[in-house]
Amino acid sequence: MDILFLSFAEDFDLVLKIFFILFAISFIKQRVTNNTVSIFLISIAIIVCVFMFWDFIKIPYILYTLLTIGVASVLVDFFFISGHAEAEKQMKQQEKMEASMKRRERDELEHMNVNIPDEPPSHITSHNAHHITHTPAKQVTPQKMKGSPNLLRPGR
Amino acid sequence: MKAYIKQEKGFGLMSLPFYPRLIIVIIIALLIVPLLTYAFPIAKYIVMVLVSFWIYELVARSLGGTGFMTILITGILIYFLVYKYLFLTATAAMFYLFISLGLFSTLIFGGASVLHKRPKH
To answer: Which of A3, A95, A131, B109 gets the highest tally of CB atoms within 10 A of its CB?
Structure first.
């Protein structure tokens, strides 16, 4: 396995060197129109970058290639989504905290025997709310509740 | 509620956190064509031809012609990239294709909107 990986690394290095030589040739040919000067510069660039300082050039070249093909946009997308995810998580936590605080307040008020008007049932929306006449909250005794029909039941 | 708990605590893709899920989806999308080359031999030859043309075009554009050096360098690159490491080259080609067509943004945002949804309970 080690031999296989070493061979793969060596092959990758060779392919990278060939790509770098191609990159250097096209880069210099685009900028220097004189043929002799361009060949001289290409040979110097190849000798210096590939045969002398390849270890220093390799990683910047890989980064340059990745940035050229547009890996930065993928990273931006990822971080953008991570921002959304964080915001979503914070919003959920805040909602949970608010709900627990409301529940606690309600429990405390119930514990103190304070009459709390019930919240409107879920079937009453802003569309049909004008049909319902609001009546002041009454103190309902348990004896009366036994016999009386539940007027706030959604089916009625 | 039971279904929700099952999906959250299962051993499938949905039991993982969000980012590993998204990365797995991207890797699967990248590996579709390389795995097809193993499943169907005809797909393998099509990918080989496409990658060879791609390499030849790259080398010819860099050297500015179709001379002997172009053929030589293309041959060396085709030996390594197409003959020896076709799977990696096909994956890299898919990665390049996805980036150049802007499919990664679609994949990431689409995947995020789908994978953020939780089942109703």
So the answer is: B109
